[in-house]
Structure formats: C-alpha cells, structure tokens
Amino acid sequence: MASPDRKDYYYRKAKQQNYRSRAAFKLMELQTKASILKYGDTSLEIGSSPGGWTQIIRSITERPVISIDINDMEPMEGVTFIRANISSPSIIERIKPYMEKLHIDKFSVVLSDAMSRTSGKRDIDHSSSYLLCKRVMEISMDLLAEGGSVVVKQFQGDLTVQFVNEWSSRFRNSRITTVAASRESSSEVYIIFKGYISEHETDQFSQSP
Ligand SMILES: C[S@@+](CC[C@H](N)C(=O)[O-])C[C@H]1O[C@@H](n2cnc3c(N)ncnc32)[C@H](O)[C@@H]1O
Q1: pTM of the model
Q2: Tens digit of pLDDT for each residue in 149-203?
Q3: N or C: which end of the chain has fewer CB within 10 A?
C-alpha cells in the first residue's frame, strides 16, 4: 500500500488520467516550458519505468521509442524496451541493433529521468545522480543526431553548474529548470540541452580559416 504522502495531488491526477506515474506531469511541464519534443521525433528514453514519460513521448512524437531501465517495464505499443544498466560499458552495443531494426540512424531527442533509489542524504544523491547524468551525456554523444536535444534529471549540488558548463559547448543552448510536479522537498532539476553540435561539425569549425 502506498504511504499517505505518495497519495499527493499529482499521484491522484495520474491515476485519474491513466498515466503510469506522476512523473508524466513533469515531462508535460518541461514540454510546455521548452518544446523539447515534436511530432516525428525519434527518442531514446533512459530511466523509463513505469512509463509515464513514455506515454507522453509517444503521444507527441507518434514514432517508435526506445526505452531503457534497470527495472522491468510493462509493455507499451510502439515502445521497444531494453532492460539494462546504462553504466554498462556495452550499453551502446545493446541499443544499436534495435535502432537498426527500427531504421533509426540517430535520435532526435535523448531524455533521462533516471535516478537510483534516493538515500535522503543530499551529497550522496547528488553524486550518484551526477554520474548517471554524465553517462547519459556520453551515450548521447554517440547516438544523438546533429541539432538534437538532451534532457537530464539531476539532483542539484556542487557539481551541477560545472556539469552544465562542461557539456554546453557541444550544444547551441542550455538551461536548468525545475517543475512544479516535483515534490516540494526534492532538489531535482532538469537540464535541457538543445542544438547538438556533433564532433564532425566542431571539426569543421576549428578547421575554417
Ligand atoms: C523516477 S524513475 C523514472 C520514472 C519514469 N520517467 C516515469 O515517467 O514513469 C527513475 C528510474 O531510473 C531507473 N534507473 C536508475 N538507475 C539506472 C541505471 N543505471 N540504468 C537504467 N535505469 C536506471 C530506475 O530503475 C527508475 O525506474
């Protein structure tokens, strides 16, 4: 049985509207704020279970989605689910055959709501979240299309600004934002990078006179 605090406003709203999780409202808010997804986009979703974000992604893009989680997820139409840990060194090789099967060369958007079970200790939660975000960015560098976007959730801390600065040079713009659907006590922020500049294009810039 859910604890009383889980039965909050967004929890009840998700139940009423048949969303798999309250997190669906977080992505809706991010979409309203930053227009991350559009019809026809191909998406890689990390930390997908139970699938609230997946429902939103599918309803906007109406294209196949590849979703990854270390935990299982109930099947959803149009969604290829891979049960895997993104920290695994072979994760790219796990994803690529599914991309080929779906005729996806590169993804338009990579979205991550991944987070391991929180400890309640801010520093520990921040550093595990930071490492997950770093891994999402590494994966994105391989699988994201030129001009594409990345959204990552991070538990804010000392390294958050450094993280944004570190990766923002690979994108045309970046921003940090919060959503009302996060719990009041949560330190989670969402970092949105838009307009991916692939290595190839960076090289071209550096070679031009
Ligand atoms: C907050 S939940 C995601 C909720 C989901 N976005 C939704 O809308 O229903 C975070 C998820 O990240 C997953 N996760 C944590 N660490 C992971 C890892 N290393 N690899 C893959 N998934 C991971 C967890 O299993 C969990 O399901």
Answers
A1: 0.93
A2: 999 999 999 999 999 999 999 999 999 999 999 987 789 999 999 999 997 665 5
A3: C
Q: Is 86 in the pocket of ligand 1 (CB under 6 A)?
A: yes
Domains, in order of start, for the chain: 4-207 (3.40.50.150)
Q: Could you count the other beta carbons within 10 Å of the beta carbon of residue 144?
A: 23
- Give which of 100, 112, 27 is closest to 69, Cα–Cα: 112
C-beta 188 within 6 A of ligand 1: no
CA-CA distance, 4 to 7, in Å (whole number)? 5
- Ligand 1 atom with the shortest distance to the CA of 114: 12
C-alpha 72 to ligand 1 mean position (Å)? 10
The whole-angstrom distance between residue 99's C-alpha and the CA centroid of its chain comes to 17
As given in the structure block, the two tokens for residue 208 are: 């031009």
Of 208, 130, 190, 201, the residue nearest 166 (C-alpha): 130
